[in-house]
Amino acid sequence: MPERRPRNRPPRGRRPRPGGGKPPRGAPPERPRPSKRSGLAREVEADLRATARPAQVGEALDEAERAVDSLARERFADAERSASRLKSLVPRSGAAREILGIAYYRRGRFREALRELQAYRRLTGRSDQNHLIADCHRALGAPEKAVPLAREVLGARVSPEVKAEAVVVAASALADLGRYEEALTVLRRFRTDPRSSRPYDLRVWYVTGDVLERAGQRQAAAEEFRRVVRHEADAFDAAERLAALSER
After folding, report:
1. Contact assessment for residue 186 and residue 173, using Cβ atoms and an 8 Å cutoff
2. In which domain, by residue range, is 202 found?
3. Looking at CB atoms within 10 Å, which of 69, 98, 130, 227 has the fewest?
C-alpha cells in the first residue's frame, strides 16, 4: 500500500523532541538535571552512555547531538543520516531509535518511522511517542490501529502538549472511519484554554472544526475555525475554510 500523508489535519505545529516524555506510569518522578552535553536531554545522554561500548560513547554522543540539532533546524535529511549512524553504534538504545524514528517521520517516511518508534516503545516501555506511532498507522492507511494507541496516552503521565497531539490523531483516525461522534467525544476530553493561544489548543480547535464539517455540522464547524482565526489569523488554513463555509 503506498504511503500517504495524513489527511485533514493541520500542519504539525509541535516538533517531537527526543527524550521529551515522562517516565512510565508508576515510576517515581526525577528532578531534572543538566546534561553534560548541552544539546541532549539528560535521559537521552544517560541511555546512550549505558548502551554504547565504552570506546564508542563519545562518537555516539556526537552523532546524537548532530541529529538532535538537525531536527531542531528542520534539516531532516541530515538528522536521518546522523541518527542512522547513531543506531549502528547503539542498536539497543531506546533514545537512538526514538531520534531516528522522529527523523523518518519528519521526512514522511512513515513505514520506517513506525518501525523505529515501535522499537523505542518496546525498549523503554514509554508511551510519549504513541501519537507519532498512531499517526504513522493512519498515514499507512490503517486508522483503526491508530485509535487505541492514541487513546492510551490520555491516561499516561505525559505533558498536555503530547496529550493534545494524541487527541488530534485519535479524532482524525475516528473521522477517517466515519465515527464522527466518537471523534468529537475524544476531542472534548482535552481541556483547552479559550483565553490563550497555545499552539496545541489551536490544533485541537482546528481538528474539531474539520470533524464537524465532515459530519455535516457546518455552522458548528465555522465557529471552531473562527475561534482559531480569532487567536491567530494565519494559523493553518483556518481562515480559508471559514470563508468557504461562509460562502455556501
Report:
1. no
2. 128-248
3. 69
- Contact call for residues 243 and 226 (beta carbons, < 8 A): no
* 104 plus 167 within the same structural domain: no
Which of residues 117 and 247 earns the better pLDDT score?
A: 117
Of 96, 126, 156, the position where a domain reaches its end is: 126
Q: What is the helix (H) or strand (E) element at residue 49, kind and residue range?
A: helix 42-51
| 60/170 same-domain check | no
Question: Are 157 and 247 within one domain?
Answer: yes
Of 82, 160, 91, residue with least CA distance to 122: 91
Per-residue pLDDT of 154-207, as tens digits, reads 888 889 999 999 999 999 999 999 999 999 999 999 999 988 879 999 999 999
Instruction: Please state the domain count of the chain.
Output: 2
Cell triple for 68: 538532535
Q: Are residues 141 and 236 in the same domain?
A: yes
Q: How far apart are CA 25 and CA 37, in angstroms?
A: 27
* 43 in Cβ contact with 55 (< 8 Å): no
Single-letter amino acid code for the residue at 100: L
Tell me the whole-structure pTM to 2 decimals: 0.82
From CA 129, how far away is CA 69, in angstroms rounded? 19
Q: How confident is the model at residue 8 (pLDDT cuts 50, 70, 90)?
A: low
